[in-house]
Amino acid sequence: MNSNTTGEVTGYSKYNPEAKRRKKINHLEDIYPALPDAKYDIIYADPPYTEPLQGIQITIRCFEPQSGTIRQIRVVRNFNH
Predict the structure, then answer these.
(1) Are 55 and 74 a contacting pair, CB within 8 Å?
(2) 3, pLDDT greater than 70
(3) CA-CA distance, 8 to 22, in Å (whole number)?
(4) Distances (CA, A) of 60 to 1, 65, 74, 76
(5) In a 3-state reduction of DSSP, which class is residue 45?
(6) How far apart are CA 58 and CA 27, in angstroms?
(7) CB proximity list for 16: less than 8 A, separation 6 or greater
(8) CA-CA distances (angstroms) from residue 72 to 32, 55, 56, 62?
C-alpha cells in the first residue's frame, strides 16, 4: 500500500491509484483540430442544410418508474409566421 513521505497511509495514497486507473482519456484531440485560444465576438458557420429552416420540433419523453407510465411533451415552433 502507498504511503506518504512520513510513512503513514492516507486516504489519498490509498485511493489515488484507483482514481488514476479510472481516468478517462479524450482521444478526440487526435482526430479534430484544437479550438482557438483567442476570444471572438461572433463565429459564423453555414448551416448543414441547403434549404432555409422553416421550423423545429422537440419531443421529450419521461418514464416514471413508480407508476410505470411514460409522459411525453412536444414543442413545435414554425418560423414562417
Answers:
(1) no
(2) no
(3) 24
(4) 49, 16, 6, 12
(5) coil
(6) 31
(7) 2
(8) 36, 20, 17, 6
Q: Write out the E strands in 1-81.
A: 55-64, 69-78
C-alpha cell read off for 58:
422537440
> For all residues of the chain together, what is the average pLDDT?
78
Say whether 76 sits in a helix, a strand or coil: strand
Name the β-bridge partners of 51.
Answer: none
Which candidate, 22, 71, 78, places its Cα nearest to that of 52? 78
Q: Is pLDDT at 50 greater than 50 in this prediction?
A: yes
- What is the spatial distance between Cα 59 and Cα 70, in angstroms, rounded to a whole number? 13
